[in-house]
Request: fold
Amino acid sequence: MVNFKIETWGCQMNEYDSQKMAGILKSRGYNEVEKEEDADVFILNTCSVREKAAHKIFTRVGVIRKKFGKGKIIGITGCVASHEADNLFKKIPNLNFVLGTRSIHLIKDAIEEALKGKTFCDTSDHEENLNIKPEQIDRKKMVKAYISIMEGCNNFCTYCVVPYTRGREVSRPIEDIIEEIKYTIEHYGIKEVELLGQNVNSYNYNGKTFKDVLIEVDRIKGLKRIRFLTSHPKDFDEELVKVIATSEKICKYIHLPMQSGSNKILKLMGRKYTREEYFEKIDMLRSYIPEAVISSDFIVAFPGEEEEDFLLTMDAIHRIQYDNIFSFKYSPRPKTAALRLKNEIPPEIADKRLFVLQKYQEKVQAIKHKEMEGKIYEVLVESVSKRDKTRLTGRTEGNHVVNFEAGRGENLIGRFVKVKIISSTFTSLKGILV
Reply:
């Protein structure tokens, strides 16, 4: 029996792809292991959105080879594989196989060739193989299911490598999406799903839009929560918000990346909206859903970003008062149009701007979390707390992380419970079972 171990780097879509590969291999008689020393095959499912992520993969392969020698089979899948392709064999000695994001259905073939002492590389666009049967996806003991509704991106933002690693947009038939969700409910007892796509609200299959997907998923019996990632502001419209507002299942948590508060920088990024248009969408969202929890992404120190542009970003953050922000320094990525831009920002200025942004957001989140103290929220219990084994960790509908006492030791993982918030930090909430 061949033992394999999958290490997942990056986003939820990568986690979903890892579940697919694990399911395919297990259905073919392979055995998944947790301990490194037990693995015959290492599969590194990679991310290339950030420059450091790709470098970490090269380092990780070196560590495995140094620790276990040449006897272990090592393969790289995911975005780095799609981006680098054959070059990986030149950069990484004794690498056994490479599979792109749309070639993971060939994982068994890749390993079998490696076992014969041959290398294997496929980064082709197997669009027709994006759908994998629900029973072939190994979801383990997760309390929520990731469900891909589309893959790829047509936006080509100037800083983003995704269109080159995930390809152009391809939407799945609604029928297949519904079938997969129903299967996860029946076989895993899952009550929450997260619909995935590089830009979910550009979903389009035979004239059906993302709004239609949400309406159909909302009708599924046994499902209690529906989330989705990620939305592009240019496609986020009033009709979609109306569907979210009228549903009891769709979480009132919206992740809407702004990236910059400066129209000059937004244009250089190729984002296809202005700050004014973004503000209008936020106002529209809050008019329908006043309680909406809103998060965003921001990139600082994009080429050409002057102090005035950064201050416009800070003004936007101050005006909107986000519940959460994911913020990064600009990271140049191969093939992207931003590489041709001039006026790079010195690292010390980039560091300072990111520090200022993050410190301000920490204060905002601390205040928002403080306002939640004393209130009771419904929490989906996800796991035992990493820091304290006597506590459980879960999330509210608004995606807030809550840690609370495990009580009398009941098996609450995967269940919804009422929790009263008793204290908070800017990152999480502490509560007690009601």
User: Anything to note?
Assistant: The chain has a mean pLDDT of 92. The chain has three domains: 3-127, 129-371, 373-433.
